[in-house]
Amino acid sequence: MNNSQIDRIDIRIMDELSRDGRLSVTELAKRVGLTKTPCQIRMNRLRERGFILGFRAVIDPARLGREHVAFAEIKLSDTTELALRAFNDGARQVPEIEECHMIAGAFDYLLKVRTRDMKDYRHVLGEVISALPHVASTSSYVSMEAVKDAGPLQLG
Whole-model pTM? Predict the structure, then answer.
């Protein structure tokens, strides 16, 4: 199923679910102008074909005491496929790394790191991230305020 195989109703279904993944099928069907059964069939098809990857709760990090956000540029000493895999595997194991993106540019990775405070970030950067396989150098950028944070993917 490619983009040409989805229609405006499929897009509306995904749009509604991206805003509220806990919608009942009945309510979702009402919002997109279908009855319950066809809506359920479309939703299942979108999941089976990989358009909908899953559902999850959005947690408030501030309520958990993890509101400090920093971005770290990572340069590796080795960028062979084996080295990249080793770094990727290590980064996936660090709970403070919220996002990890391989970058085409002056550095190799950009990490979004969420911690309690600057002291905690310094520890995670110095003792955990810097110790990941093949890390040669890091540069940090501390977020002062999230002007726009991840929200629903806008489809239409």
Answer: 0.81
Q: What does each C-alpha distance from 7 to 1, 4, 37, 46 come to in angstroms?
A: 11, 8, 17, 11
Q: Cα–chain-centroid distance for residue 23?
A: 21
- Beta bridge partner(s), residue 70: 113, 142
Q: Is the pLDDT of residue 81 over 90?
A: yes
The CA distance from 130 to 109, in Å, is 13
Find tokens 């991206």 and name the residue: 18
SS3 call for 6:
coil
Judged by DSSP in three states, 77 sits in coil
CA distance 2 to 88: 28
CA–CA distance, 98 with 94 (Å, rounded to integer): 9
